[in-house]
Specification:
It is built from 12 helices and 15 strands. The chain is of the alpha+beta class.
Length: 419
């Protein structure tokens, strides 16, 4: 059964670590930047008549913004919804002028007004938050189609049943008031090695370093009793600094809400379902994000079975990350392990790798229930399990294109499974 340990509290505030500066081909070190570079700032006055060239003069070179629009226009055969409205339905609802995009995006004269009702207020909000100009115009193809209401996520596998017991939704206890990633990658739309090295820096990391596989996971990882991720989950301390995460229960480095469910695929197989919602007014990219939590032990079997969903993609086959993932059995909790995952996207533009304001993303983690003797047969035991999963959960987003390398090294997360 799930056994509780005392969660340590501390008055030490844990903030975002400034570990890496700009990346040019390879990672470099530097200090945390608080505002975008002078040539990457949005104009002070933004109206419906403002063009994408006025927002970011480098919209086409080197940022390929026309391709971001034209490759995924609403109504294309590849453009189908994950759940909720299709892109075509959104375009009609929000007065998104598809013909104006076709005719004007390449020369930069496309205006925010021609992108409909959603684009202008989003861009004005981002400008007030010192959001990078190039990231703003790169996100515009999706921002213009993001509805005010929260869209529902679909599931990869339809479960046989879902536990009645759930945990959340709850807001992260140590939420900052705002979180702006001031460095976003170049987001190459070519296969130029210099650009791909930045865009796919997380995905390609195993190609350049000694890396292991999580299918199956080595015993020295699964049974480690010294991995700092154990205390990170059970005592809410950061694996790198040892300092408090400055909050009991669910914690994160950006404003978000989390919810935990357990889906039963069959009597011997479960899916841990982790759902997140961006509750800020600022998008954040998920590439390189690391999360950990206490969950039911799968004994290191089938860690490759994991699924990602984000309804703000034009197609459910696009923007799906590979994962660096480990499981470490926690001796302090009967039948529980700590899971840690880093998201590693590739190829697709980062407007598909992004958590949008008031919108959700989720992970489904396949877990062989037959692997352990702990089955959680009673409602009280099931409720305690999902509560423990949520209380131990932490999400650490990437800052300054640093790939969260410090965390990766600290918890030995160099074990990749494909998407």
């Amino acid at each position: 059964m799930v056994k509780r340990r005392t969660v340590l509290k501390s008055s030490i505030a844990f903030g975002t670590l400034g570990l890496a500066g700009k990346v040019v081909g390879q990672q470099s070190t530097g200090s945390l930047e608080t505002t975008p570079a002078a040539d990457d700032q949005l104009p002070s006055t933004i109206t419906a008549e403002t063009t994408i060239a006025e927002l970011c003069p480098q919209y086409n070179d080197p940022y390929y913004v026309p391709r971001d629009f034209l490759d995924y226009l609403p109504g294309q055969s590849s453009s189908r919804s994950v759940a909720g409205m299709t892109d075509s339905e959104k375009a009609e609802r929000f007065d998104y002028d598809i013909e104006a995009v076709r005719n004007k995006v390449e020369d930069g004269t496309l205006t925010l007004g021609e992108l409909g009702t959603q684009a202008l207020p989003f861009v004005q909000t981002l400008a007030a938050a010192d959001f990078p100009a190039h990231a703003t115009v790169k996100l515009l193809p999706r921002l213009a189609l993001v509805p005010d209401e929260t869209e529902q996520l679909s599931l990869h596998n339809q479960p046989q049943s879902v536990w009645d017991e759930t945990a959340g939704p709850v807001t992260a206890n140590n939420n900052p008031a705002q979180f702006t990633q001031n460095q976003w990658p170049t987001d190459a739309r070519t296969y130029s090695p210099e650009e791909v090295a930045i865009r796919d820096r997380v995905h390609d990391q195993p190609m350049n370093e000694e890396w292991g596989s999580a299918a199956p996971l080595p015993d020295d990882v699964l049974y480690s009793d010294t991995n700092p991720v154990l205390d990170a989950a059970s005592q809410k301390v950061h694996p790198v600094t040892g300092e408090s995460l400055d909050g009991d229960g669910f914690t994160a480095t950006a404003p978000m809400v989390a919810e935990i469910k357990m889906h039963v695929l069959n009597d011997g197989y479960w899916y841990q379902y982790l759902k997140f919602k961006n509750v800020s007014s600022i998008p954040y990219h998920l590439d390189g994000a690391i999360l950990w939590w206490l969950g039911p032990s799968g004994m290191g079997r089938n860690l490759a079975d994991g699924h990602y969903n984000n309804v703000q993609r034009p197609n459910p086959s696009l923007g799906h990350p590979q994962r660096d993932v480990i499981e470490v059995i926690h001796d302090g909790y009967e039948g529980l392990s700590v899971y840690a995952i880093r998201l590693a996207y590739h190829d697709q533009p980062y407007h598909m790798r992004t958590a949008y304001p008031n919108q959700c993303w989720s992970l489904e983690i396949g877990t062989p229930a037959y692997a352990t003797t702990v089955s959680y047969p009673t409602p009280a035991e099931r409720q305690q399990l999902v509560d423990t999963m949520l209380d131990s959960l932490h999400v650490e987003l990437e800052t300054n294109i640093d790939m969260n390398d410090d965390l990766l090294e600290a918890v030995d997360l160099k074990h990749r499974v494909p998407n």
